[in-house]
């Protein structure tokens, strides 16, 4: 991470005049227009929040900043007026900011309600009605259709933008040897070729760390991440390939794309209903969080397991490799419950149902 480019600015900002009421922390800044992230230094002083990053200096009224509720162990998110956002690991600073905002936000909400209570009420009713309709019916159905007709080139672009964001926020470089990586890539390429489709399949190796642990997950266009921890947990390559076949299944059924559309749909809808059109632009920056924290539906997991099971039957005549690694995944000390990111540990449907399903595929001898 680089420091702000112009050191001369420090003198203009009087950062040395810190008083006990001031708050300062490091964060990652997204401008709300692109998914590019920039390291930033944030300073809260009185009623002003100041962001400094490469080539950027912006100040916001503290009252206009909203703090997103904490999401498991992912980074804390601040939404800035105008659609930009900040993400930070500094939970203490955010807690201090929340205490401060709690007072101010409460006050301004009361003022708003007193002067324009009917606007607030109408907005609330509108949000409730839209939410009900979309969640019940419209949104998942629309998201499914949109996912199926999304051009592969669009998904490939989304993949490359998302890889950067995911790397900077969730994963570390792999320590798996280049020779081992090359060998697994070759096996993965054969699997992907066999399964086909208009996707640009590629396999990326990363260390999962505390947040992701032993896991694998796929981006919409065919980019599949596998963590060092998962490779260590696997007793043989069949187990790894079983997991990768499951991820290829998610790609081919366009589960991630669907997930993103559902996430984007809600965000857009809330923004528009609340009259905050500009913040809709910030959704691109939020894609990694949708993908990593929301998890797939039970139906999507079953579909991916089915694909993996059928492939394992064809290749090895048994679904045991995937069963074995799933059992081991649930036994190991993973990230805390509630902070598990997708894919394999998200456990929809539950472990036992997944094992029973894979056993049934084996009993039927595959298709
Ligand atoms: Zn899955």
User: Unreliable runs, pLDDT <50, ≥5 residues?
Assistant: 1-18, 103-108, 277-281, 335-341
Annotation field: number of helices: 12
Summed up, the domain count is 2
The quaternary organization reads as single chain
Principal-axes shape call: globular
Count of strand segments: 11
Biggest sheet layout: 7 strands, antiparallel
Share of residues in helices:
40-55%
Q: Topology as H/E string?
A: HEEEEEEEHHEHEHEEHHHHHHH
Q: What's the alpha carbon Rg, rounded to whole Å?
A: 23 Å
Strand order of the largest sheet: 4-3-2-1-7-6-5
Bound molecules: zinc ion
- Could you tell me the strand content as a percent range? 5-15%
Distance between the termini: 51 Å
Indicate the mean pLDDT: 77
Structural category: alpha+beta
Question: If you had to describe this structure to a student in words, what would you say it looks like?
Answer:
This protein is of the alpha+beta class and 367 residues long. It has 2 domains: 9-95, Pleckstrin-homology domain (PH domain)/Phosphotyrosine-binding domain (PTB) (PH-domain like, Roll); 152-363, no CATH class. Helices cover 54% and strands 15% of the residues. The protein contains 12 helices and 11 strands. It has helices spanning 9-13, 91-149, 152-169, 178-195, 209-212, 228-233, 237-252, 255-273, 283-293, 298-316, 320-331, 351-363, and strands at residues 23-30, 37-45, 48-53, 56-61, 66-67, 76-79, 85-88, 172-173, 202-207, 216-218, 223-227. Strands 4-3-2-1-7-6-5 form a 7-stranded antiparallel beta sheet, with helices on one face. A 4-stranded mixed beta sheet has the order 8-9-11-10, with helices on both faces. A hairpin with an 8-residue loop joins strand 5 and strand 6. The longest helix has 59 residues, at 91-149. It is globular. The relative contact order is 0.10. Bound molecules: zinc ion (ZN). Zinc ion (ZN) is lined by residues 246, 250, 296, 301, 304, 343. Zinc ion is lined by residues 246, 250, 296, 301, 304, 343.
């Amino acid at each position: 991470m680089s420091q702000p480019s112009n050191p001369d600015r420090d003198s203009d900002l009087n950062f040395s005049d810190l008083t006990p009421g001031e708050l300062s922390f490091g964060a990652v800044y997204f401008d709300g227009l692109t998914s590019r992230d920039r390291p930033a230094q944030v300073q809260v002083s009185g009623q002003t929040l100041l962001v400094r990053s490469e080539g950027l200096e912006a100040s916001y009224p503290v009252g206009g900043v909203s703090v997103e509720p904490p999401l498991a162990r992912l980074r804390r998110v601040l939404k800035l007026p105008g659609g930009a956002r900040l993400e930070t690991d500094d939970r203490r600073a955010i807690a201090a900011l929340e205490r401060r905002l709690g007072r101010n936000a409460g006050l301004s909400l009361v003022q708003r309600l007193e002067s324009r209570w009917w606007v607030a009420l109408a907005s609330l009713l509108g949000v409730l009605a839209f939410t009900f309709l979309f969640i019940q019916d419209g949104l998942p159905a629309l998201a499914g259709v949109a996912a199926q007709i999304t051009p592969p080139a669009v998904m490939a672009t989304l993949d490359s933008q998302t890889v950067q964001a995911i790397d900077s926020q969730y994963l570390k470089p792999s320590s798996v040897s280049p020779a081992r990586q090359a060998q697994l890539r070759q096996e993965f390429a054969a699997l992907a070729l066999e399964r086909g489709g208009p996707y640009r399949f590629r396999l990326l190796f990363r260390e999962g760390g505390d947040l992701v642990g032993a896991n694998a997950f796929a981006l919409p266009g065919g980019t599949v991440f596998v963590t060092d921890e998962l490779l260590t947990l696997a007793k043989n390559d069949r187990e790894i390939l079983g997991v990768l076949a499951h991820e290829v299944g998610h790609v081919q059924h366009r589960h991630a794309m669907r997930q993103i559309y559902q996430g984007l749909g809600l965000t857009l809808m809330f923004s528009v209903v609340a009259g905050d059109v500009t913040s809709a632009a910030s959704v691109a920056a939020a894609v990694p969080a949708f993908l990593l924290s929301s998890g797939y539906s039970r139906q999507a997991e079953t579909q991916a397991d089915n694909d993996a099971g059928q492939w394992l039957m064809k290749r090895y005549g048994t679904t045991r490799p995937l069963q074995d690694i799933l059992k081991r995944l649930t036994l190991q000390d993973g990230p805390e419950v509630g902070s598990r990111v997708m894919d394999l540990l998200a456990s929809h449907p539950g472990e036992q149902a997944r094992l029973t399903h894979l056993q049934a595929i084996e009993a039927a001898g595959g298709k």
